[in-house]
Write the structure tokens for this entry.
Amino acid sequence: MSKGRFGVHGGQYMPETLMNAVIELEEAYNHYKNDPAFNAELTELLNNYAGRPSRLYFAKHMTNDLGGAKIYLKREDLNHTGAHKINNVLGQALLAKKMGKTRLIAETGAGQHGVATATAAALMGMECVVFMGVEDTERQALNVYRMRLLGAEVIPVSTGTGTLKDACSAAFREWTSRIDDTHYCLGSCMGPHPFPTIVRDFQSVISKEIKEQMLEKEGKLPDVVMACVGGGSNAIGAFYNFIEDEGVRLIGCEAAGRGVNTAETAATIATGRLGIFHGMKSYFCQDEYGQIAPVYSISAGLDYPGIGPEHAYLHDIGRAEYVPVTDDEAVNAFEYLSRIEGIIPAIESAHAVAYAMKLALTMRKDQTIVINISGRGDKDCAAIARYRGEDIHE
Amino acid sequence: MSKITSAFRSGKAFIPFVTCGDPSLDVTEQIVYAMADAGADLIELGIPFSDPTAEGPVIQEANVRALSAGTTTDKIFDMVRRIRQKTDIPMVFMTYANVVYSYGSERFIRTAAEIGMDGLILPDVPFEEKAEFDPLCRQYGIDLVSLIAPTSHDRIRMIAKEASGFVYCVSSLGVTGVRSSITTDIGAMVKLVKETQDIPCAVGFGISTPEQAAKMAAQSDGAIVGSAIVKICAKYGKDCVPHVKEYVKSMKDAVRNAN
């Protein structure tokens, strides 16, 4: 079996042209991840540039309103650039810089990873090109402007469905044509080895902090940790340090779009099957001949036909559960959290909030749920207004 | 000697590619006969994939046209069955890992062998992952073609040692598509392969003119052309067959005596 496996998942299904690049990346990562100077530099950036550690907030009103388990919100939305994406990007950008790369390329769905990459490139004096599905440049116009403001070039991708998977394919194609000076700063825990491992490691700071914060606030580990899952980077970050704690339920909330019984869904675990795509073996939404399905979700960040290989493995062994959440449920949760706690979550994160609203009722008052609020929802306001039939200008 | 290797016996080889089902499988079938008539030594049949990450825009669009026309793996197998009643020209499938894996790797490879295919090219399956498909290919007598790229360097010997059929030398960085010039030292790549194993080497990616084909064939055992042919299919649609035939003939003439 090749490197980078999580059970049967993972691997390196890449064109030969990129093989030395991913091998070089793996070697560099293995060197720097144990380098005290590298880690000190990264921690300094995470703390004083990105604003870590992020807060763990007890959602008192939500808890009282639902009348079940105590709900805590891990506030990744308070990070610089407004999402968890910056954790991974600062790590990869620093690594790329050490490797002598001068240019970062990235794919983006909702635009949060693109904004984070453009930010890190600005900070570190690197060139930046972001690929974004043309559909997403329209529904996330504000983030397109932010990336350009930060000095990045944004390339709209019109192939396929014009969404995240196509942006990802375009970024892989670009990397194939320009490797020497360019690092592909992949935004999720997916793609060929070593990306799923690198992204998970850089995001695992989330679960490391949750653990410390829960022990401090509650004197015990949480009963449930939940997060939304597209490729799955915020979820793997929130889960990783709890995998060893069998008593902690890990729940990933997939985007069901208009429902898992419709074609307009992006719920990979619920509707996909094993396949090989974008460098990895994992579960993918696909037809009987292996053609990748044109998935759909209101959330550009979860609108992806696959899931990271480590999530596929956690599903296989039953260590994590994956549940589908529809557009409607997510929009309701988006509005609910805004009103009840004064926190506007990203529509992606609202998928996790929506499931917590159902789950909390079934739990005892002495039990606890931690929801990873992976990003803030400013970027989604115009789209949600449109969803509710209100045409506002951004 | 495999049937693919024998395709390189009569001088430098010309290897044309076509996306199956663009614009229809009936036209693809006629294209195959025309290519064989025009002197092609080996034909690459592309099975369309929804997200062909190693292809440039020309072949990406051909994949979209083919899939929109209802092309499926089973219908392509049926087309090959028809073709095999008329010609025994060596043919290989070119597609992506998921097309094979999703069909059931053994079922796909066994069927491909049964209907008379000679090889399989999977651009998203590098040396490290070939154990997924190569043992099945060997079991059923299909060559899983290995690719080497300008970035392969120290990997070339490792890849060449276990290669079968022919070695596909990727001429330049990037995805498939027409290029104005190719600057890679193909001769050096081919030399490394030949030092490891006496196996034919054909060069692809970016070749469109007879001059380029002759230059690449001179440094190797043959030239592979995809996008330039797919462009002709896109331009003439169902009337493309004579145009493809004329083009293949001009390319074969250019590479035949290249040195």
About this structure: The beta strands of chain B are 13-19, 43-46, 91-94, 119-121, 143-144, 146-148, 167-170, 201-204, 222-225. Chain B touches chain A at residues 49-51, 53-54, 56-57, 60, 67, 72-74, 96-103, 123-129, 131, 147-153, 155, 159, 170, 173-175 (CB under 8 Å). The two ends of chain B are 24 Å apart (CA to CA). The longest helix of chain B spans residues 241-256.
